[in-house]
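input
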Amino acid sequence: MPLTHPTRFCSLCGKEFSTNEKIYEKFTCLRCYLKNKPLFQFQDIFYLNICLECGSFSKDSKVKIWLPTSTENVLEIVKSAIKYYLLEPYGKKDNIKFIIKILEEKISPSAKVIEDIYLLITGVHRYDKNLIYTQEIKIKLKYGHCDNCISIKQKKINAIIQLRVIFVEQLDLIEIVKEKIKNYIEQASKKDSTEYITKIDYVKNGVDIFLSTQNQTNKIIRLLKPEYNFLIKSSKKLMSRDVQRGKNIYRIKTLIKFLPIEKEDEVITKNIKYIVDKIGKNKIHLIDIHGNRIIKNYQFFFSKKVKIQKKDS
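output
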């Protein structure tokens, strides 16, 4: 007679096991095992703080440790935070691979500020693909300012230096000049503690350097002039008034636009090709293939009518 296997049943629900079906702890089926022992279990509501200025985040606690992020998208910030605080520690400990889905249909399209975000978290055991569990959690968002941004807001900004280039290839120049200015201000701060850089913002084609006083602006320009060629444009904005002294207080903004050309670059204007022959303090000497020379000021090379071909291109 052929051998027959005894009929086996789940100890909790009584379901009959199929021939190859895996039996879990205490002789239970997969459904009953996960029902009584979920693969993971997070709190239903998670409170998260987000900085309005820089997008850094922290979990809600008495001592907040703010973590930086590279995005300004609130949904992406939430995903990063949940991965850091919940999923990565849990996954490493219990060998679970997690997938996050944001339930965007639960976010009101008319909401000016997103306060509640619902996440569907699915976990799969790395060594048993049958162990799958899904949980929905709610993220309550609180907006404010991180310690760093509060510190920055409390510092004075009386001057701004804006470093700009035209070509992406010149961004290395921006980094070099930025470091020169940082080193210079660090030295100045050792002699006068009121001199410091409040913050540095990266913007398209350059950086903005915020200074605590106006005293260093002209000194920085003098520092850069011997080595670099650039245009300067200054403007001022009324910030407040010193009632006791009867004087207005202005914030000075200085734009430094670095020349987009170097010696031997090609310049095309009015369908004539020139080579940059000489760069002076304020003027550029150009020469065409026939030896004809023209002289132009710096501003000319920022015009859209001028095409520039770098010598290394």
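quick obs: The helical segments are 30-36, 74-94, 147-154, 171-191, 217-224.
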